[in-house]
């Protein structure tokens, strides 16, 4: 692996991003966030993109937070600029039109947990540790944690985590709905391959529309959101995927999307 702060590999429409600052437990600094923004420029322009998988280099950490050394001497204005850079970039990642999945392979703290929260879902290795420990440093989550965490796990659990700063293990993260699955670290690679096959085999436009319906619908009242679903459902009959998918079922063969 080269020494770029993020390693990007794309194969058959599946992009794999590896946060690559293992000596600092993959902490998020400005250089890494700029690199992420450049990678997003590329990913957003790809019509053939099918999914994005994100993990951390090494066996110890996904991302252990924003870079504390870089943050320590910031003024309030500089802190605001840093948080804005991160929020904008993380939101672009969240809003990619394809599923974005976090493969959490160790410490997932502070800005790391906030990065995972912006992913559509997360799976964790059994040694993963989660938390929003910012209050231990005299600050609060600044990369979206006070907003996305309660939306994912409910306000009571989010308030527990952001005010105590306590860390939780992978099993507790599973129980509260922060992650979808827990597996041995060695199994994460197999999971990534299975997921790539699953998502790669589905109708690409249908997958994009499904994500859009969930994301956009969550911001609307139920009636508007159901109307959105109906529009996207109807639209799926306008392309070639629906005809191929349904014909393949009736002809007892695999669809070719
Ligand atoms: N930033 C910078 N360096 C880090 C970070 C980090 N977040 N985490 C670990 N490192 C570095 C350590 O300093 C150490 O470096 P060195 O070898 O040069 O001393 C190296 O990584 C290895 O870490 P440890 O020796 O500490 O490893 P341990 O196994 O003993 O401990 C822990 C692992 C428990 C993960 C520990 O490193 C730790 O507590 N890290 C900090 C976790 C944390 O507090 N994260 C939250 C950061 S704040 C944040 O994310 C706020 C986001 C909002 C910002 C708003 C904008 C301004």
From TrEMBL:
- Asked if Lyase is a keyword of the record, the answer is yes
Instruction: Provide the alphabetized UniProt keywords.
Output: Lyase
InterPro entries, per database record: ClpP/crotonase-like_dom_sf, Enoyl-CoA_hydra/iso, Enoyl-CoA_hydra_C
Which GO biological process entries does UniProt record here? fatty acid beta-oxidation
Asked whether the UniProt record includes Ligase among its keywords, one would answer: no
Q: Extract one GO molecular function annotation from the record.
A: hydro-lyase activity
Query: CDD domains under this entry?
Result: crotonase-like
Supply the Pfam families for this chain. Answer: ECH_1
Family, according to the entry, reads as follows: Belongs to the enoyl-CoA hydratase/isomerase family.
Q: What is this protein called?
A: Enoyl-CoA hydratase
Organism source for this protein?
Onishia taeanensis
């Amino acid at each position: 692996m080269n020494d770029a702060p993020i390693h990007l590999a794309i194969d058959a429409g599946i992009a794999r991003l590896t946060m690559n600052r293992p000596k600092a437990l993959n902490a998020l600094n400005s250089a890494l966030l700029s690199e992420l923004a450049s990678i997003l420029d590329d990913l957003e322009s790809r019509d053939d993109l099918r999914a994005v998988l994100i993990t951390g280099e090494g066996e110890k950490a996904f991302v252990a937070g924003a870079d504390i050394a870089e943050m320590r001497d910031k003024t309030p204005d500089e802190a605001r600029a840093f948080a804005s850079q991160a929020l904008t970039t993380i939101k672009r990642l969240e809003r990619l039109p394809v599923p974005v999945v976090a493969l959490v392979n160790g410490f997932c703290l502070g800005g790391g947990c906030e990065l995972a929260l912006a992913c559509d879902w997360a799976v964790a290795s059994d040694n993963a540790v989660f938390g929003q420990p910012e209050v231990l440093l005299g600050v609060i989550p600044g990369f979206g944690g006070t907003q996305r965490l309660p939306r994912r796990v409910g306000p009571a659990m989010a308030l527990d985590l952001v005010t105590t700063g306590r860390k939780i293990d992978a099993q507790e993260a599973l129980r509260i709905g922060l992650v979808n699955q827990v597996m041995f670290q060695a199994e994460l690679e197999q999971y990534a391959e299975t997921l790539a096959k699953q998502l790669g085999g589905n109708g690409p436009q249908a997958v994009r529309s499904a994500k859009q319906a969930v994301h956009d619908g969550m911001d609307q009242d139920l009636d508007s959101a159901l109307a959105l679903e109906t529009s996207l459902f109807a639209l799926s009959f306008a392309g070639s995927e629906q005809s191929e998918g349904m014909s393949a079922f009736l002809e007892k063969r695999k669809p070719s999307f």
